[in-house]
Design a protein that fits this description.
single chain, alpha/beta, Rossmann fold, 2 domains, five-stranded parallel sheet
């Protein structure tokens, strides 16, 4: 039995959980690099019976799965993975298992990005490292407007922290009601007012047909020229081309981003080098506790499948 663990960028998969129940019965191969080319990916995965994917780092669409006749199981970290073609796995009789997770790390990173962007922490840290001193004037968040786009498990927690910072927390999403917003400690605003009101706009929606490109040219144009946009959800929710244009033109003040249309972000992408962008490499869930849950549950799921319980 051959098992592949994909995209273990930090090379921690085998040390984060006890893999003995699996390694005693199967050969496990860990890949630390990422392959985006479909043909190269298929060639790599062809010898494996089981593939473990880390969230959506490596998508498994129909044109990949159908070319892997040996594949019998996919273990995916997190409670869901929209980048796996579940219809194709069902047709092929491939068992797909998911794991638990934790949203706290993404909530915490959201606030790290908000505070880092508001107080220019990267610029000021570099000034100190270069032998300099104060170079910018930061912005205070107290009594500013925090716009939360989506009040689910993550957005609601982000909203509560905004309230603790003394911010005026407003929220909008397609199905949000004023009553639900109030229960999460936010004030509902209709769409036509929401984007214009936010001093900090933070995105917390699931990616789907309704949310793809939801923050587009019109929404960015409606925002204040002093506003910051923060996205720790999924890159395609924000129209990337429109965002780059808004940053270049100064129609918004800056962005703090953990997610992108293409990941890893291409080396020559403008979001890597724009002065008003604080960018991190999709690390919202990359923390000790979520990783322990991910790999523990993956071991349990693979072991159960080897036992014929899948």
């Amino acid at each position: 039995m051959q098992i592949a663990i994909l995209d273990d960028y930090q090379n921690v998969a085998l040390s984060t959980a006890d893999w003995v129940p699996v390694t005693a019965r199967a050969d496990v191969t860990v890949f630390n690099d990422h392959l985006a080319d479909v043909d190269e990916l298929v060639e790599r995965l062809a010898p494996f019976d089981v593939v473990m994917v880390m969230r959506e780092r490596t998508p498994l669409p129909r044109n990949v799965i159908e070319r892997l006749p040996r594949l019998r199981m996919i273990a995916s970290t997190g409670p869901q993975n929209a980048s796996i073609d579940m219809a194709t796995t069902a047709e092929a009789g491939i068992h797909v298992a998911h794991t638990g997770g934790s949203v706290a790390s993404t909530v915490e990173l959201t606030w790290a990005l908000i505070l880092g962007a508001a107080r220019n922490l990267v610029v000021e840290r570099q000034a100190v490292a270069d032998g300099g001193w104060q170079t910018t004037v930061g912005r205070e968040l107290d009594r500013r407007v925090l716009g939360v786009l989506g009040l689910g498990r993550i957005g609601a927690r982000v909203a509560r922290i905004g309230e603790a910072f003394g911010m005026d927390v407003v929220a909008w999403s397609t199905n949000l009601t004023p009553e639900a917003a109030q229960q999460a400690g936010a004030r509902y605003l209709p769409r036509e007012e929401f984007f214009a009101a936010a001093d900090v706009l933070t995105v917390h929606l699931k990616l789907g047909e309704r949310s793809r490109g939801l923050v587009g040219p019109a929404e960015l144009a409606a925002m204040k020229p002093t506003a910051l946009l923060v996205n720790t959800s999924r890159g395609p929710i924000v129209d990337e081309t429109a965002l780059v244009d808004a940053l270049r033109s100064g129609s918004i003040a800056g962005a703090a981003l953990d997610v992108f249309d293409i990941e890893p972000l291409p080396a020559d992408h403008p979001l890597r080098r724009h002065a008003n962008v604080l960018a991190t490499p999709h690390i919202g869930y990359v923390a000790d506790r979520p990783y322990r849950i991910f790999f523990r549950d993956a071991v349990n799921a693979i072991t159960a499948w080897l036992d014929g319980q899948g």
